[in-house]
Amino acid sequence: MTPATDELLPISVVGALTGVNPVTLRAWERRYGLLLPHRTAKGYRLYSGTDVARVREIVSWLEKGVAISRVRLLLDSAAAEAGQVAGHVAQDWQAALDAGMEAALALDVRRLEQQFNQLAGDYPLSQLLACWVDPLSARLPGASASDSARPLPGAVTARVVFEGFLQNKLAARLLAAARRPGREPRWAVLPAADGAEREALMLAVLCAEADLPVLLLPTPLPADELSLLGSRADVAGVLLVLPPGLSTTLLERRLGAARRHLTDRLFACGDGLLTLSRIPSGVLPLTGPRQQIINSLSAMSTSAKSTSAMATKAANRQDSKEQA
User: What is the pLDDT of residue 90?
Assistant: First the structure.
């Protein structure tokens, strides 16, 4: 969707059109000077079609790995070379990974915190997870002092320290998001089996970052409890995170009758989707990178809210007719 050039839109609509959280839009304006929306007499922000196009251009640069602090220069420079940008991006992430590796091997949680916060200020959380957390976690257990497969001394301890830091950091962000007001139905996110706990946590935090109400369950649930959870009126749906190596037989056994009870409300994602011989009936797969999964949940939530609003209006009209 693209608004007409003379149509001014509120920040909530721009967020829905572009997938950018209104909090982030305000930060791009105040901190980086990337946007200059119109203002009403009461100070509310209004965005033109040109503003929406600029937001999308900013997003495209962020998706290429460019730090938000560098985007303005690229937006203002018609001579920006894609190859040069890609080279700088690769160097930036490599430097961040090297610094993270050094801090983890030193068991220095304070430095890990500083690096995480700096990257979180420059990049969307989804990109920070994909370009720093994932590769750093993968490097730690297999770090090599030479060309051999022999791990660096302390690499296992460093991984444990890093994983503990990451869990605490993401859990704190999730807890802060849970304090926000709102009574919309929540997405329940949980691992389908052992081995997907961290991925479930990261997806839950990304839901919160996208202003999607979310409930994280850190461990798998029995089939009967899963059915009860998914049937609650305050739960929009259940997202199961599948660990690598999960078989279709084991997944069906764990789900039990929940597949029949949670029609159109039971979703699955994660690396385990790749190892299933088939998708069990009653389970709706969500594939792609993490942000794509979050976008899918957001679209379903928006559709559900629109349907609910239309039903409420129809009911009110019917009540008015009956009263007349």
Answer: 76
- Cβ pair 237, 266 in contact under 8 A: yes
Q: Which CATH superfamily is domain 183-308 in?
A: Cobalamin-binding domain (3.40.50.280)
The rounded distance, in Å, linking the Cα atoms of 115 and 99 is 8
Longest dimension (CA), the chain: 84
The token duo for 142 is 């297999």
Query: What six digits make up the tokens of 321?
Result: 């007719």
Phi-psi category of 155—alpha, beta or left, where left has phi over 0 and alpha has psi -120 to 50?
alpha
**CATH 1.10.1660.10 at 9-76, yes or no:** yes
Quickly tell me which residue has 């839109």 as its tokens: 9
C-alpha span between 22 and 67 (Å, rounded): 19
CB 239 within 8 Å of CB 201: no
Give the C-alpha separation, 187 to 199, whole Å.
Answer: 15
Kind and range of the H or E run holding 9: strand 9-10
What is the Cα–Cα distance from 286 to 187, expressed in whole angstroms? Answer: 14
Query: Cα–Cα distance between 216 and 155 in angstroms, integer?
Result: 30
Query: Per-residue pLDDT tens for 286-314?
Result: 998 898 899 899 888 877 665 554 444 54
Dump pLDDT digits (tens) for 203-226. 999 999 888 899 999 999 999 999
Weakest mean pLDDT among 124-128, 152-156, 184-188: 152-156
